[in-house]
Amino acid sequence: MTADQLQAIIAAGLPCERIALEGDGRHWYATIVSAEFEGRRIIERHQRVYAALGEKIHTDEVHALSMKTYTPDEWAALGANGQ
Fold this sequence. Notes:
By secondary structure, the chain is an alpha+beta fold. The chain is 41% helix and 24% strand. It has one domain (3-78): GMP Synthetase, Chain A, domain 3 (2-Layer Sandwich), CATH 3.30.300. It has helices at 3-13, 42-53, 55-58, 72-78, and strands at residues 18-23, 27-33, 64-70.
């Protein structure tokens, strides 16, 4: 799976302002910014992303996904780099 394919899958299931991905095709690191994360704990945010991935996570097409999830306000507070 390519980064573009993974990004499209996440974006189709979760409205995002930003998705940045790095990985090798099976192991991924994602930074995701979505208004849907407002008022949700980290675990709930991750569950929401996993729900967007659906079967891709269960069939091992995406073997590992490490992520940082932010609301738009949290992302803005990080500044221009977001790192």
